[in-house]
Amino acid sequence: VMVRDIRCADRTRIESGVLHIDKNELVKYLKEDVNIKDVDIDIAKPGESVRIIPVKDIIQPRIKVKGCGQVFPGFISDVDSVGEGVTHVLEGCAVVTCGKIVNFQEGIIDMSGPGAKYNSFSALNNVVLLIEPVPGLTKHAHEATVRQAGLKAAYYLGKAAQNVQPDEKETFTYNTLAESARLYPDLPRVAYVYMIQSQGLMHDNYIYGLDAKGILPTLISPTEVIDGAIVSGNCAAPCHKNTTFHHQNNPVIMDLLRRHGKELCFVGVIITNESTMLSYKKRAAHFTQKLARLIEAEGAIVTEEGGGNPETDLMLNCKLLEKSGIKTVLITDEYAGRDGRSQGLADITAEADAVITNGNGNELITLPPMERTIGFLESVEIITGGFSGSLNPDGSITVELASIMGSLCELGYERLTTRLK
């Protein structure tokens, strides 16, 4: 369901491509959470001179209208399995959570100017939630409160599309392993290894509401991911934090589904976590290797989330998959210094001979002042990619690309890469 504009109204609904929002009703719904003192709702549209900072998460409004369960299982709904039936998507808009900073690793969205080209969120009609927690709330409780509010708002807005005839329809077919072997015996069997940050200290993600720290590598249907089975609770650097929106629209999954049965046989998604402990990293990599062999994968795409020690997970996965005869491609980003001359990754392995990079997080840019700020501009000197002196006297900001939400998305959602000279 295409959303071309957003307006405040006395009733939440979608008419002729316009999302009308009853702000009072939405605020009342969100303030049912006793940890929220107040919520202000703002709207940011493409091309406006608006800067949103500090951004915590971004979520696309969706609702299941047919099939088991509901979007964001384990949060909005029960833990019923999702991934089948019909889901209505509000295309062209998103919920953005903002407000008092929770952790220094929160980011920026510019709706116009040179900063807008670094992420796709500038092209969306954004419903921004400025959330003020009750006094004394701990950082972990604050993060959980903001996360839940964003999901609730996305579900609330998604309900506006429940009885609306979609502008476009897309059908995804995902076969069982036995069906795939029977239907596509001559197509290359490709698996997707989906690395999920799970390091604790507010570097966590959730699968059906379960903190990913507690999992062994797991097979999941790609259509479950589309229905919101993976939710971001991660405070990784903004440039390579996979927001909930990124999970809902994972381009690797979408591309593999669209090519399934034509150019390749998509045999499954293997979710694996990223721990801080070397023994946990090794355990996860070996279990990932076992699952890939069990589903008889011939090729694998591996995406990282975050940077630094998760690159050890990335390289362990690559090494073991390649040693099993599974051709492996890695997708990552780099922190190569402001001049691009430093080592881009914290770990390497000889088997990593097919690597896609989505840019250098240390690249320095200056963004002009905006007419309006949603949030708190002064937080630019605290967030990742910012520094003391980032806020210039004229209101412009000088930051590393690391500060811009999703700019180096390691799922390949944006268009940046790194070119050898």
Task: Explain the overall architecture.
Helix content is 20%, strand content 29%. It has helices at 23-30, 139-158, 177-183, 222-226, 244-248, 251-259, 278-294, 310-323; strands at residues 5-8, 13-15, 18-21, 36-44, 50-55, 57-59, 62-66, 86-89, 93-99, 107-110, 125-133, 189-197, 203-207, 210-211, 218-220, 230-234, 265-274, 299-303, 327-334, 355-360, 364-367, 372-375, 397-400. A six-stranded mixed beta sheet has the order 15-17-12-18-19-20, with helices on both faces. β13 (203-207) and β14 form a beta hairpin. α7 runs parallel beside α8. The N and C termini lie far apart (44 Å).
Q: Tell me the number of strands.
A: 23
Radius of gyration (CA) equals: 21 Å
> What is the subunit organization of this protein?
single chain
Gap between N and C termini: 44 Å
Number of helices: 8
Architecture blueprint of SSEs:
Elements (H helix, E strand, L loop, with lengths): L4 E4 L4 E3 L2 E4 L1 H8 L5 E9 L5 E6 L1 E3 L2 E5 L19 E4 L3 E7 L7 E4 L14 E9 L5 H20 L18 H7 L5 E9 L5 E5 L2 E2 L6 E3 L1 H5 L3 E5 L9 H5 L2 H9 L5 E10 L3 H17 L4 E5 L6 H14 L3 E8 L20 E6 L3 E4 L4 E4 L21 E4 L21
Parallel strand pairs: 1-3, 5-22, 9-11, 12-17, 12-18, 18-19, 19-20
Antiparallel strand pairs: 2-3, 4-11, 5-10, 6-9, 7-8, 13-14, 13-16, 15-17, 21-23
